[in-house]
Amino acid sequence: MSTTHLTDFDVAIVGLGPTGATLAALLGDMGQRVLVLDREADIYDLPRAVHLDDETMRVLNWVGIADDFQNNVIINKGMRFVDSEGNLLLDWPRPQEVTSNGWNASYRFHQPDLERALRSGLKKRENITILLAHEAEHVEDTGEMVRLSYRNKVDGSAHETTALYVVGCDGANSTIRRTIETPMESLGFNQRWLVVDVMLKHEMPELGDHTLQYCDRETPSTYCRNVGLRRRWEFALPDNETDEEASDLGNVWKRLSKWVTPENSLIERRAIYMFKSEVARDWVKGRLVIAGDAAHLTPPFMGQGLCAGIRDAANLAWKLWFSCQSDNGPTLLKSYETERKPNVTEYIRVAVQLGELINRMGSSGKAEAPQQMKSLQSELGEGLGDSDDPVRGTLFSQSVLSNGRRLDDEVGHQAVLVTSHPIDPSEAFPGLQIIDASGEPSMTEELAAIGAAAVLVRPDKRVLGVARSTEQTASLLQIGAQIFSSDRTLQHE
Ligand SMILES: Cc1cc2nc3c(=O)[nH]c(=O)nc-3n(C[C@H](O)[C@H](O)[C@H](O)COP(=O)(O)OP(=O)(O)OC[C@H]3O[C@@H](n4cnc5c(N)ncnc54)[C@H](O)[C@@H]3O)c2cc1C
Question: What atom of ligand 1 comes closest to residue 271's alpha carbon?
Fold first, then answer.
C-alpha cells in the first residue's frame, strides 16, 4: 500500500538503555517507524541492575530474547536482612517455581548482558533506525508533530527530524523531562552508596546464594550473589568520606576484607551513586512522553528500577501504536501515566522502607522473631476499564495452549478475547483475536476462578474487562472497540 507519511518517524526514542531498547523493539514489532538516539557510543558499563522478575522476563519474551537470555541468568533464591551479628530480621524468599507469568519469580543477571541482547535484537528489525553517539538537544511539540534536533557527537554535525511522538527514555538526568518542565517529587530516601562488582578467582560457596542486607547503623551494606563468579557489594557512605576516598582501591579492599581479598578475587568495577526515591509529576505532555529512569528513580533494595522501566515500555508501546493511527492518543497516553505512576510509586515506597530498615537496625544483641516478606502484586492505577472490577488491570496468566505454544507467543501484540462461549463474528472489532477457552483446560480454570464468561485482554496482557455472563460479552467488545479500533486517519505500512 502506498502511504503518505507526515513525519520522518512515528516515534523517536531518546535513550537506548533497557527502557528505550524494549520500547523500540515492541514498537518495531507493531510495524512503527522508530528512531532511537543515544548519546553514548556504547552501553553504560558501570555496576547497575542485577535482578529482574517474572513480569519483566515475560516482556523480554515478547521482544524475542527471553529464551536465549535464560543462559545469562540464575534463579534467585531470595533476600535476607540480618543485623551486624548475623541474626535474621526479615526473610524474603523467592519461589523457585514458574509463576502465572510463565517465568521464574526472580532472576539474577548482569545488566550489560541484557542490554547487548536487546540491541542485537533491534538490529534485526528493519523499521528501527539506531543512531549511537547522537545526542538529543532540543524538542518542539508543534501540536501536529514533534521536531527533534540532535547532534552527532563524533563529527559535531547538527540534524533535525520529525516524529509523531517523542519518548524520553533518557535516564535520571532526562532532557525530555526538562522540556516537559515537570518536577521530580521525592519519596524521602536520598543516600550515597559505593557499589563494587567483584570477580571471584574460584567458587566461594561460603559467601552464600542469598542476597544479604546488613542492617547496621554504622555500616549499612549489601551482598549479592550474581551470575557465574561475579559478586556485588554495596556500602552506604558516611557524610565525612569523600567520593575519592571511598573509591580509592585500598579503601575498597578494606571494606571488602570481611568477605574477599586480592588473593581470591578481582575488583571488576566500582561506582558511587546517590540512591534516590523520586517520581516525576507529569509523564506525558502533548506529544512528549517520559519512561524508565527519566520518570522515576528508586533505591535498588528491591531490584526494581529496570523492571519498572520495562513495565513502562510494555504499558506504553501499544498505546503509542494506536495513538499514531487514531485520535485516541490523549486518552491512551494519559492512561499510561495514571496506570503506571501508582504502580511504580508503590514499589519505590517499599524500597524506601527496606532502605530505612537497612540504615536503622543496629545490633541489639537480642534478635526478635524474623518477619517474612512477600513480593508485591504488580497492580495498575486507574486508567482504562472499570477500576471497581478487581480483575481489571491484572496480568492475564501465561497459559501453555493445547498446541504447545505459550499464550503470549500465540497472540503477539493484539487484543484478545478469551471466551467460554461462541462469539458472533460481527460483534468482534478489527484486529481482535479470539481464543476459545473450552479447548484450553488452563484457561477454562482461569475463567472459572475469575467468575467470567469472557475476558478481554489488552496487548500488554493485562485484563481490560470481564464479562460475567454471555450477555455481557457484547458490551465488553463495544468497550474494546472504542479503545482498540483506530480510525486509520494516518496510514502506515
Ligand atoms: C547500583 C544499582 C543497582 C541497580 N540494581 C537494579 C536491579 O537489581 N534491578 C533493577 O530492575 N534495576 C536496578 N537498578 C536500576 C537500573 O539500572 C535502571 O533503572 C535502568 O538502567 C534504567 O534504564 P533506562 O533505560 O530507563 O535508563 P538508562 O539505563 O539510564 O539509559 C538512559 C540512556 O539515555 C541516554 N541519554 C541520556 N540523555 C540523552 C540525550 N540527550 N540524547 C541521547 N541519549 C541520551 C544515555 O546515554 C543512556 O544510554 C540499579 C541501579 C543502580 C545504580
Answer: 1
**Cell numbers that stand for 129 in this block:** 533506525
What is the best residue among 39, 148, 283 to mutate for testing ligand 1's pocket, by most ligand atoms within 8 Å of CB? 39
Spatial distance between the Cα atoms of 138 and 359, rounded to a whole number of angstroms: 41
- Where residue 274 falls among pLDDT bands split at 50, 70, 90? very high
Q: Please state which CATH number belongs to domain 407-484.
A: 3.40.30
Counting ligand 1 atoms within 8 A of each CB, the residue from 191, 293, 315, 376 with the most, and so the one to mutate, is 293
Q: Could you tell me if the CB of 16 is within 6 A of ligand 1?
A: yes
pLDDT digits (tens, 9 = 90+) for 320-370: 999 998 877 888 999 999 999 999 999 999 999 999 989 875 444 444 666
Closest C-alpha among 50, 60, 68 to residue 23 = 60
47 touches ligand 1 (CB under 6 Å): yes
- Cα 441 to ligand 1 centre (Å): 41
Report domain extents, the chain: 9-71+109-185+279-358, 407-484
**What value does the mean pLDDT take over residues 166-173?**
98
| Complete DSSP assignment for 285-303 | ETTEEE-GGGTEE--GGGS
What is residue 199's predicted lDDT score, i.e. its pLDDT?
98
Cα–Cα nearest to 24, from 310, 272, 234, 424: 310
Q: Which three cell numbers stand for residue 255?
A: 571494606
74-75 β-sheet, strand order: 51-53, 106-108, 74-75
Mean pLDDT of the chain: 93
Q: Phi then psi for 66, rounded to 5 degrees?
A: -65, -40
Q: Can you give the pTM of this predicted structure? A: 0.96
Q: Closest residue (by CA) to atom 37 of ligand 1?
A: 170
Please report, as a single letter, which amino acid is at residue 446. E
Strands 128-132 and 78-83: unpaired
Nearest to 320 by CA among 307, 337, 305, 308: 337
Q: By percentage, how much of the chain surpasses pLDDT 70?
A: 96
CA–CA gap between residue 469 and residue 457 (Å, rounded): 17
pLDDT at 51 over 60: yes
User: What architecture is domain 9-71+109-185+279-358?
Assistant: 3-Layer(bba) Sandwich (3.50)
147 bridge partner residues: 140, 162
